[in-house]
Write a structure and sequence with these properties.
The chain contains ten helices and no strands. It has one domain. It is 73% helix and 0% strand. The termini are far apart. With 338 residues, the chain is an all-alpha fold.
Length: 338
């Protein structure tokens, strides 16, 4: 007799959606609270990226090793593995998706929080992803941009301009928020490059997540770790309180990379890509509201209107756009990779 009944598919899907939204929203708030120098965080952006890759690597590297061995035992992927047998993908594919989706995205996103508030990140990172992805897919995958999708993208661009344009104008008075805005949009571009590459190579979510983690881990962790030991960089990872380091490894690495990757994939399996994207479109609004309540950030009129336009553009573009192909259900295409 079973003591606990298994969860229904509906309950599992709803739980996966809630976990995904909570982690992506928390990612923006926690990253700003940690990386903002004025808040006295113990780690700088490169330290946080280091903690992210260490935490994810502790969980995923053993999985990577097992996946490669299983594929070899079954006769599949005999010549496909790379990175010392930890990546289940060829070296060229691992390097390209890992460079954009694993390394550049993390460093650029965390660096943006040094200059710009969480509200800007909430609008510009999730908001820019549909724009960059659509343009890159049209350019490299020859995907058609429908009229409805074009209207949604126009709303997103208008929202981005309202948010980023105001900070750019204040740059003439010595403001630095525009630097963070630019870093956020560039991070979104990098994640869009990863998404388009994943679609081009028809990668499933597990192997794509494994590959980007392995590449970033082997490229970044040894180099930055040695730089810390030799005091070549102003990092504080080795001197920061152990509790903060452990928390960042757990949340940024295990939570943002591993858990949210699994829950997002499960959410797509249950709700489909269209409904899933509509659900995650609440992240910008929730993150902005959380930044106001938790970090005491001001909600200026241009940020509020920009947030509304971006959210409307995401929902409108997904709701009235063409249905994605069935194959896209298994691709890692979240609006933001926390």
């Amino acid at each position: 007799m079973r003591l606990f009944k298994p969860f229904s598919a509906q309950a599992t899907g709803v739980a996966a959606a809630l976990v995904t939204v909570v982690i992506w929203t928390s990612f923006i708030v926690i990253a700003r609270a940690t990386a903002d120098p004025s808040r006295g965080g113990a780690l700088n952006p490169f330290d946080i990226a280091f903690a992210r890759l260490l935490g994810a690597g502790l969980v995923l590297l053993p999985v990577d090793w097992w996946l490669v061995r299983r594929d070899r035992a079954s006769g599949k992927g005999m010549d496909q593995s790379s990175m010392f047998g930890f990546s289940p993908l060829p070296l060229r594919t691992t390097a390209t998706v890992g460079f954009f989706g694993g390394l550049l995205y993390a460093v650029l996103a965390y660096s943006g929080f040094v200059f710009a508030p969480a509200g800007h990140a909430a609008v510009l990172m999730p908001g820019s992803l549909p724009l960059w992805t659509t343009l890159l897919a049209a350019l490299f995958l020859h995907t058609r941009i429908t009229r409805a999708r074009a209207v949604g993208l126009a709303l997103i661009v208008a929202g981005d301009v309202l948010v980023g344009g105001a900070s750019l104008l204040r740059a003439f008075d010595g403001g630095e928020v525009w630097k963070g805005d630019l870093l956020f949009m560039t991070a979104a571009l990098c994640w869009s490059c990863y998404g388009v590459l994943a679609r081009h190579h028809m990668l499933d979510a597990v192997r794509a997540t494994v590959a980007i983690t392995v590449f970033a881990f082997f490229l970044y962790v040894p180099v930055y770790g040695m730089a810390l030991l030799w005091e070549l960089v102003p990092g504080r990872f080795l001197t920061a309180p152990l509790g903060q380091v452990a928390f960042q490894m757990a949340f940024q690495g295990i939570g943002s990379v591993v858990i949210s990757g699994i829950t997002f994939t499960r959410m797509i399996q249950h709700f489909g890509p269209v409904r899933s994207t509509m659900m995650t479109s609440v992240v910008p609004a929730l993150a902005s509201l959380s930044a106001v309540l938790i970090l005491d950030e001001p909600l200026h009129w241009n940020l509020a209107i920009g947030l509304a336009l971006v959210t409307l553009g995401i929902v409108f573009g997904v709701r009235v756009g063409p249905a994605p192909e069935a194959a896209s259900v298994r691709l890692p295409v979240p609006p933001v990779k926390p």
